[in-house]
Amino acid sequence: MDKERDILILGIESSCDDTSASVIKNGFLLSNIIAGQKVHEAYGGVVPELASRAHQQNIIPVVDQAIKQAVVKPEDITAIAFTRGPGLLGSLLVGTSFAKGFSLATGAPMIEINHLQAHVLAHFIQEYDQPYDPPKFPFLCLLVSGGNSQIILVKDYLDMEVIGQTIDDAAGEAFDKCAKVMGLPYPGGPFVDKLAKEGNPDAFKFSKPRIPNFDYSFSGLKTSFLYALRDQLKENENFIEERKADLCASLQKTIIDILLDKLIKAAKETGIREITVAGGVSANSGLRNALIETAAKRHWKMHIPKFAFTTDNAAMIAMTGHYKYLKGEFIGMDAVPFARMDIRV
Predict the structure, then answer these.
(1) For domain 139-305, which architecture applies?
(2) Which of 205, 239, 319, 338 could form a cystine bridge with 232, CB 3.0-4.6 A?
(3) With contact defined as beta carbons under 8 Å apart, do 126 and 27 qualify?
(4) Which tens digits make up the pLDDT trace of 112-136?
């Protein structure tokens, strides 16, 4: 390969309900386009079949916009990186099929990307004229989203080990399902975060699990929250509306406490003070503030991503693709997506 040639990576993300495309040149971000799907709001959660149909409608205009914004041509692309998994199989099929078609049309080789690994490497996205202070290896990453709650030991760009993870529900799922019970729109996490700022975080006490090692559990919290509402509604049918801010604040505080307890334990036992957070729930202002306060108290070097790189986005896919390109890790036309993937894959 010509070492003097610019490395232009086109990233494709379609693991759930966001269609995204991004172009990264020599490690620097040129474009990052994201198209959401409002169709799921009426159902209180992502409907897989509707998601895959929306991806089919969105992917061509999203990629076209990303390439135009980057001021490059399709034939200039060095390689195309696509999310192979984990995620919704129908959604992943759309992105995988597009990557194959693009590769056949342009000759650009394909690079498979693990969605979870990409969330971690979002911290290495560089933007022109923006400060750049990435974490140093080894570091711990708290990956929290609607589908995942993990503590990851990151030894190098492509060398990661999950040392703790949820044994049932994820933190984002707990936010969304408890929000749904309170009648809040989907996705509920941002609405809980907003209302929590107006409430008392110590107004209610909810169950905290006792799980060994660095693993998480949020199913007990959801049950505790549901029972608390049920008991209070027997006494006052307007309880939720009258105490919604306090409920949100208390729920959010409980989830954050659960997350931080295990992260603190992991940092102590590994001796690592370089700490990062990633995933959709890392956009939560309560979690961000708690992490900053904990970092100051425990002398951690804390890395929190920009809001644009917390939710599903193709910039993190292209960034991961950049590092895999440098190692010559390509995949052929026989690639198929996987609903489940280990972070090491």
Answers:
(1) 2-Layer Sandwich (3.30)
(2) 239
(3) yes
(4) 999 999 999 999 999 999 999 999 9
